[in-house]
Design goal:
CATH architecture: 3-Layer(aba) Sandwich
Largest sheet: 8 strands, mixed
Number of strands: 10
Order of helices and strands: EEEHEEEHEHEHEHEH
Number of helices: 6
Distance between the termini: 18 Å
Mean pLDDT: 94
Shape: globular
CATH topology: Rossmann fold
Radius of gyration: 16 Å
Strand order of the largest sheet: 1-2-4-3-7-8-9-10
Strand content: 15-25%
Length: 228
């Protein structure tokens, strides 16, 4: 694959013309380079012709980390049940990712062949945007994360993505975002009749080889259904 990058995004282009895209969002304090190295570990067929887009979150002060400036999709005050949610920041990042989806469509990849993926904070934005996007997407991959602004989902979810395949995974020993947050999010999604493929792994707030294998299989399955 061929790497391209600029101040806002890292892109891995397939050898042939892209017929599908995965927009993958990093976690708090990382950047777009955090996950681009895992693409070979997904063990996707060379014929997949998937473009991987790894955007950089904006740099902003994060309250949880004493106001330190770092890349973050939204502010975090504390990690606890019922804590303040930076709804304005989450919605601003949702719009950024929606624009990236539109850019992929303008480059010839239809929305139904675009996957949103994200780890931790990135997974929050993948769920926020994917469930509300106005055109059908191929799938959502939400890793070690949770469902944001859950109380608005019933009103704001878009029928275009009510049947979207969702891959959710979490580490049993996650010491940053407790697995209970992920399990609760899956329960809420199930209550709203979303199709969630749920995985738990013996790990902390990270990713593991088995998880990457399962993500690769998920991608192959959903994109095969789109006849890519």
């Amino acid at each position: 694959m061929k790497q391209q990058h600029n101040s806002s995004v890292v892109v891995l282009e397939p050898e042939n013309k892209a017929t599908a895209s995965v927009i993958w969002l990093h976690g708090l304090g990382a950047d777009g380079y955090d996950f681009y190295g895992i693409v070979p570990q997904l063990k996707l067929p060379q014929s997949s012709n998937i473009r991987f887009i790894f955007p950089h979150a904006p740099i902003r002060p994060v309250t949880l980390n004493q106001g330190t400036n770092m890349r973050a999709w939204y502010d975090i005050v504390e990690i606890s049940a019922g804590a303040f949610e930076d709804e304005a920041g989450i919605r601003a990042s949702e719009k950024v990712i929606a624009t990236l989806i539109e850019e992929q469509e303008n480059q010839g990849v239809p929305s139904e062949k675009i996957v949103l993926a994200g780890f931790s904070q990135g997974g929050v934005i993948a769920l926020q945007c994917g469930l509300r996007y106005s055109k059908p997407l191929a799938g959502i991959i939400a890793l070690s994360t949770y469902l944001p602004i859950a109380h608005t989902l019933a009103k704001e979810s878009n029928p275009a993505n009510h049947a979207i395949p969702i891959f959710m995974a979490h580490g049993i020993a996650d010491d940053v975002l407790p697995i209970a947050w992920g399990r609760n999010s899956r329960q809420i999604l199930n209550q709203h009749q979303y199709n969630v493929e749920w995985h738990e792994y013996s790990m902390r707030h990270t990713v593991c080889i088995q998880e990457l294998d399962d993500i690769g299989l998920f991608l192959q399955q959903i994109l095969k259904e789109k006849k890519i």
